[in-house]
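Hi R.,

Here's the input for the coenzyme A complex you asked about:
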Amino acid sequence: MPENSTPLIRKALLTDVGPLLRLINGYAEQGIMLPRTEFELAENIRDFTVAAVGGEVAGCGALHFYGPRSAEVRSLAVHPQWKGHGLGRKLVEALEAEAREHGIESLFAFTYIPDFFARLGFAEVDRRRLPSKVWKDCLRCPKLQCCDEIAMQKALVAGLGAEEALQGQEAGDAGNGFLIVPTVKPAVMPR
Ligand SMILES: CC(C)(COP(=O)(O)OP(=O)(O)OC[C@H]1O[C@@H](n2cnc3c(N)ncnc32)[C@H](O)[C@@H]1OP(=O)(O)O)[C@@H](O)C(=O)NCCC(=O)NCCS
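And here is the predicted structure with coenzyme A in place:
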């Protein structure tokens, strides 16, 4: 990274929507991220943190809450030109710090690159145990029926392991924002 281009990690502004669209949808065209619309980005811009280099958006990530205890790290992307310079790590660390400020106990992510998240203290978990509202994203994903993303989770509370953070949830119970997704059976119609 050039000397005069120290990255600045900051919360996103509405004026970042254009660069964020180009960054995220560039990867979405390659099938490695979910595409976002201008409307969605504007609506959720306060979720986003950006890495700016020389005044340009070089990376981004979002923290999306699912209830008072759990949150998702999503829309994580670093511009191809800036990959491998630690921006991805800085972005996740900033999102984690933000989650801690809000008292979040469990942070999770869905990813094709579990090794990246493992380096940041995340561990793989059973992806059937997802926060209920996450399905609103899945429903419009082209890979809904053949999802191959890996669920990674990090407990932010000392002594709370991944399994403990997920324990105690009955099917359909969204008590801490987690839900065991029910199996859909074909309906038998009465004659
Ligand atoms: C994944 C991504 C955000 C990583 O950003 P980055 O700035 O290149 O990553 P960093 O330089 O901060 O790397 C942090 C650590 O993760 C490792 N790492 C980076 N990319 C990795 C990968 N694809 N697989 C495994 N480990 C990876 C680095 O070696 C580094 O390890 P270290 O700190 O122990 O040396 C970036 O490659 C990207 O935008 N990819 C395309 C979009 C994408 O896949 N997003 C993730 C959606 S969940």
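One thing worth noting: The chain has one domain: 8-180.

Cheers,
M.
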